[in-house]
Amino acid sequence: MKRTIFAFLASTVVALPVGAAEFTWAETTDPQTMDPHAVNSTPVLGFLNNVYEGLVRRGKDMSVEPALATDWEPIGDGEGWRFTLREGVTFHDGAEFNADDVIFSYERASDEGSDTRSWFAPISEVVKVDDYTVDFMTSAPNPIFPSSIANWMIMDSGWAEANNATLPDKENGNYATINANGTGAFKVTAREPGLRTELMPHDGWWGDVEHNITKATLTPIQNPATALAALLSGDVDFINPVPIQDVARLQSDPDVNVIQGIEARIIMLGFPHEADALKYSAETSDKNPFADVRVRQAVAHAVNVPAILQTTMRGNAEPASQLVSPAMNGYSEGLSERPAYDPEKAKALLAEAGYPDGFSFGLKCPNNRYLNDEAVCQAITGMLAQVGITATLDAMPVQNYWPELRADNYDMYLLGWSPGTFDAEHPIRFLAATPNEEKKLGSWNFGGFSNARVDELLPMIQSEIDADKRQAMLDETAKILQDEVAYVPLYVQPLVWGTRSNIELTQRPDNFFILRWVTVN
Amino acid sequence: MTTPVLSIRNLSVEIPTRQGILKPVDRVSYDIAAGEILGVVGESGAGKSMAGNAVIGLLNRPAHIAGGEIRLNGARIDPLEGEEMRRMRGKEIGMIFQDPLTSLNPLLTIGDQLTETMLTHLPIGRKEAEKRAVAALDEVGIPGAKERIDSYPHEFSGGMRQRVVIALALCAEPSLVIADEPTTALDVSVQAQIIALLKRLCRERGTAVMLITHDMGVIAEAADRVAVMYAGRLAELGPVREVLTEPRHPYTHGLMASTPLASQGQTRLHQIPGSMPKLNYMPDGCAFHPRCPRAADKCRTAPAPTLTDGRAACWFPMVTEAAE
Amino acid sequence: MLAFVIRRVGQSILVLLIVGLVAFSMFRFVGDPIDNMLGQERTIEDVERLRAQLGLDQPFPVQYFRFLEGAIQGNFGVSYRQGREVSEILLERAPATLELAFVSGVLAIAIGIMLGVFTAIRRNGATAHIIMAASLIGVSLPTFLIGILLIYLFSVELGWLPSFGRGETVSIGDWWTTGFLTESGRKALILPAITLGLYQMTLIMRLVRSEMLEVLRQDYIRFARARGLKERAVNFHHALKNTMVPVVTVIGLQLGAIIAFAIITETVFQWPGVGLLFINAIQFVDIPVMAAYLMLISVMFVGINLLVDILYVFIDPRLRVDRTGGHS
Amino acid sequence: MTDTQTNQAAPPEAVDKSLWQDFRESDFFYAFKRSPVALVSFAVVCILVLSAVFAPLIAPTNPFDPASLNLMNGFTPPLEPNAFTGDAFLMGTDDQGRDVFSTILYGMRISLFVGASAVLFAMVLGITLGLVSGYFGGWTETIIMRVADVQLTFPSILVAMLIFGIAKGFTPVEYRDQMAIWVLILAIGLSDWVQFARVVRGATLVEKSKDYVAAARLIGRSPWAIMLKHILPNALSPVLVIATISLALAIIAEATLSFLGVGAPPTQPSLGTLIRIGQGFLFSGEWWILFFPACTLLALALSVNLLGDWLRDALNPRLR
């Protein structure tokens, strides 16, 4: 027995340099599908960005750059966009890439059963001009269309048809759920859902290879402590995320590095604007104090964001004043001040609104969705209690959380929002527009915030091509939302990645882990 | 006179407790010769079983032998411990317990239990042991011994089981058998058969038997001599006929008066007023004096004489005129 | 004997039906799968369509009936999250859990019985007292904490053992994978198996001890001693065998508990078994997986129970002739 | 409970003495005095229970009052002044700036309350069902014992999650904080009753066949009177032992459930919830957030277990 242990130790010592270009990483959640059109979520799209590619992609600085399209230009006066496709690109199975694949992927991704359908809402028609030219016609001018499809991934039509996967199937799954065939820098060589996904470089990739990986393995590890232990013990080379409280510890460890950045996600408090009464109040059950803007302002002033950032976030996050972070397109520079922490002012505002003795209410919070979400809510509960409004905190797993919010079972709630388009228009459409099912507006505006001017500005923003005019309208909207305290933005969620110190990589604010930027030293 | 098989001299057993040291057996002496059956009688708690356990070395802690000596075939065995004592058990001293229902391991066949015992003590092989097991069962009167050897205890009736127990106790041919209430748990109709069996086997083999019982009827039927115990002490010792017909100790007398000899049933001591003192509330003087109709001052102050010669440990033994 | 088995099987099926009903009714409260299946840009219309697709708009009895109908044919549907046959996923994950449960079970039973016998025989010895007290530490801390502490000590600080996962596995046959055949697989087993087995080990040890003490004061043990049998024979041949009768029942129940408690251990160690699958399923409200898992656990448990009952008859000859429906 | 115990353990000639005297002279008490393990663990349990009961008097702060917390105090190491506020705490503070010492005291109240109530609930349920099934037998027995089987099939964790989910659906949010605790009690209690039922049923089966029960039945005493007066006392010793061990188990179970996210609410944390929160800081160097609650839980569970162990031996006269 002893001998075998020694033998094993010796073999690992020898094996190390050989496996230097093998790379293992852990994330909290496994991508639930390999189908790039079935689910629109960060784990799926982030992972598949290594395997599939779109017409355009985002670079290290989030700027849009050519991928499968080498060039694109507007058609006429905002009638659409023309994309020129890259020639000589092959899929992992060796098939050639051409315009048919683009058309096929458009149809697939905009199908009723596809989760990426909303990206193509502005599109009226897609036309194949020749094998390497495709026109996307829009019903209205759409200046941001190219950047909004950076995560739209192209699938090989022949492969999909041969494997009976022409449409994504969320319910039953199909061949594309566990297999992948893209044009990306890596191909999936083994997939055990929930356990292990193995990637190897795609030899025929069209781009310049920056990485030195021969094999990469993704293992989901849910328990943050386990993931951290795996990183510390060298069982994995990279974890995302690092629990925020462990940043300091990792920084002091010479074997690991912490890579921090700011995510696109804004954490905010939401209110029941439309409700007639509080649902969870012992004494104020006949009216809704949060309908009064002064009460909402009081909340904004009562929450000590610097303290939360200092303690709960360990100095790893930035305060937020708007529904988007400064890294996003369309951020309003002039509105970067968030309401100051001022409990006296909060009390005065409450008194002014007719609640000198405060009131009680129910605060809903997820406990497994955002970084330290429950701890933040707890801290907020304490801060609000100090100005006299006492919250009963109800923290729950996210699977119970959304149904509760949809059923309007809250007096105040915590929400995080990350704009998929990296543009300030995105949260306005989903969070600030008056809910309208037909127009697919305000679908996450649980509280039913409604402002006529915002509703008026939104379509104008969407179709404005002139950048300055567009920014002016975005600024106006942001000002309204700030004045009305539609939401109380708290902070920008930090991105904290941890790597072994022999790894070099690039972190993007969308929390996508791009394997082709990894170097193992 | 030949060496007795068992010879006990001034045997004391003590149990240290928080109320002080209890003496369940106090300076008891008796002998048993080969082929002889000594009946030991007394109420429960009189120390008769405790003495038997002391002999076979199965006292439960914290009870221990505190004094005196025990000789088996002339050799002292009371200082023996552990492995040495274990080898004595079964081989030199056999023991039969009260309840045949619980004395046999329910999960092993009786054949297993017999051969295991023989293999432990006798220099024989398994084949031979199995043969002897059948013979042993045959000898204790189990019909169809050859077939029943693979039966489990629960497949036997109470009487049959006690026969198996006897076979087990005797299978390594010990020179002494301690039978602790061997018939108490049995049907009246079976009791006599078991006693007869025990008697026959011991006579045939010349085994000495310590027959512990509270049943005077059993004593009368089986024993050669009888030792009467009361509160840890030997009250009277003598040949069974003499003790039964002419008891000298008032306690024996009372015992006899309460036992119609013909009766096979359970003995109850209504006639002696009071009850045996608890070990932790021993009266001064003779332990029996609070219940004794003949008690005098001396009995209340001086401990009863230790029975050495003479038959009864009493300051005022009863005279023989009571009988005849 | 046959009648007994038939009756027990019948009862077992009844138990399974009830478990199915309870399990199924529970899912309605775990959450809503829809939000996890759709991204943040979904519309209300998408939600409703998917709900109808999954049959979630049907009344509860209809859903249960449909589930049962499939379950009888061994068809538990398709995982909402993975888009694959649930039975396939379970089969894929089962070896990991079974191997873990097997090792911890063997560990718990072997060490538990050994220590139990030891502490019973040396009832008043200092070592026995220390073992008894030390064993209590194992049950006085929650399993998850013990697991995390083990990881901290043996993986992070000492770097001896892997912190998560199953190591390298080898496929045997069509669907069985084993970690026994590789060094890393065996190493990966150690910490989870200890974490999972510790509690059961303590339990078995204490049970064996008390049962053994009970047996040791039985007449037949005294009689065995009085026959001069060797201590070893008395303790192991006579006492232990009798001790095993009640112990086997409890061990049977504990095996079920091991598989159930694997949920926690698997979560802590990222052990790719069915327990982890179940926890993930809860997180994503993957109803078909949850339902199938519970049924699987119940089948295993009922099966073990049945086996224990039969084993009982095997150990205890008294029960071989006839058995009255007693249950202890 | 203690009274019944005293009566059983006391020598019969001491009946006329007062209960206390009676108790002091009992073998039980003697054995207790003689056992250092029993004495120490009893003392530890007493100290912990008392400090939990009197937590509001002992604790320097009230951690359950959110208005009194200062987030800036968060992560203060034990006995070191906080960098921002200058406050110092005996056992440091947690992520919310709560004094760990106070939080432990308050948390222990919840743990003990949940544990004790769950065991009580399990005991009442188990004893009742055990008596009924043992006494009446037949179908009643079959059904109850099969239910026990089903019950055992479900790991307590799942039972708790089930009950949690259902209860959540019915409770208004302002009661949810309390609800969590009642649900825990219900869940742990429900997963624990089987042991009690089995022991009591066993004792009932034994006692039922005895003559005095038959006699009591013949003179027309009601079944319940017979069960409670004659049968139950015979089962009390094992029940007490199981209850003690179950108490420790219940406290641990609460901690485990909290790890899986169905425990006490974080605003009113139990010991288990504290450990769950604290384990997140194991690697980050804030050891005190985990260490002190874990030690308290260990001390509590260990001494209750040791006491239960000792009780088992002491109350089993056959083993004495």
Primary descriptors:
heterotetramer; B: 324 residues; alpha/beta; Rossmann fold; 10 strands; C: 328 residues; mainly alpha; MetI-like fold; 2 domains; 74% helix
Which CATH top level class of the domain at 114-320 in chain D fits?
A: Mainly Alpha
Spatial arrangement of strands, main beta sheet of chain C: 1-2
Low-confidence segments of chain D: 1-15
Largest interface: A-C, 56 and 53 residues
Number of helices of chain D: 14
The CATH architecture term of the largest domain in chain C is Orthogonal Bundle
- Sum up the overall morphology of chain D in one term: globular
Structural class estimated from helices and strands of chain D: mainly alpha
Tell me the strand percentage band of chain C.
under 5%
Question: Could you give the distance between the termini of chain C?
Answer: 18 Å
Q: State the major sheet of chain D.
A: none
Q: What average pLDDT do the residues of chain D reach?
A: 77
User: What is the count of helical runs of chain C?
Assistant: 13
Range of strand content of chain D:
under 5%
Query: Rg of chain D from C-alpha positions?
Result: 23 Å
Q: H/E order of the elements of chain C?
A: HHHHHHHEEHHHHHH
Detailed description of the structure:
The complex is a heterotetramer of chains A (521), B (324), C (328) and D (320). Chain A is α+β, with helices and mostly antiparallel strands and 521 residues long. Chain A folds into two domains: 23-220, Periplasmic binding protein-like II (D-Maltodextrin-Binding Protein, domain 2, 3-Layer(aba) Sandwich), CATH 3.40.190.10; 263-494, Dipeptide-binding Protein, Domain 3 (Dipeptide-binding Protein, domain 3). Chain A has helices at residues 2-18, 42-48, 99-109, 145-148, 157-162, 175-178, 224-232, 247-251, 293-302, 305-310, 343-352, 373-386, 398-406, 425-432, 452-463, 467-484; strands at residues 22-27, 56-58, 64-66, 69-75, 80-85, 123-130, 133-138, 186-192, 196-201, 215-220, 238-240, 256-270, 318-319, 360-366, 390-396, 412-417, 487-500, 503-504, 519-520. In chain A, a hairpin with a 5-residue loop joins strand 2 (56-58) and strand 3. In chain A, helix 9 runs antiparallel to helix 11, helix 14 runs antiparallel to helix 15 (452-463) and helix 15 runs antiparallel to helix 16. Chain A is globular and about 70 Å long. Chain B has a domain at 1-34 and 42-82 and 223-323: P-loop containing nucleotide triphosphate hydrolases (Rossmann fold). Chain B is 33% helix and 21% strand. A six-stranded mixed β-sheet of chain B has the order 6-7-8-3-9-10, sandwiched between helices. Chain B has a four-stranded antiparallel β-sheet with strand order 2-1-4-5. In chain B, a hairpin with a 2-residue loop joins strand 4 and strand 5 (75-76). In chain B, helix 7 packs parallel to helix 8 (188-205). The longest helix of chain B is centred in the middle third of the chain and has 18 residues, at 188-205. Chain B is globular, with a radius of gyration of 20 Å. Chain B starts with 5 loop residues before the first strand and ends in a 23-residue tail after the last helix. In chain B, 47% of the residues are buried. Chain C has 13 helices and two strands; from the N terminus they run αααααααββαααααα. Chain C has helices spanning 2-27, 34-37, 44-54, 60-72, 86-121, 126-139, 143-157, 183-216, 219-226, 231-269, 274-283, 287-315, 318-321, and strands at residues 170-172, 176-178. A two-stranded antiparallel sheet of chain C has the order 1-2. The radius of gyration of chain C is 23 Å and the shape is globular. The model of chain D is unreliable at 1-15 (pLDDT under 50). Chain D is globular, with a radius of gyration of 23 Å. The two termini of chain D are 21 Å apart. Classes of the chains: A alpha+beta (521), B alpha/beta (324), C mainly alpha (328), D mainly alpha (320). Chains in contact: A-C, A-D, B-C, C-D. At the A-C interface, helix 7 and helix 13 of A face helix 2, helix 3, helix 7, helix 10 and helix 11 of C.
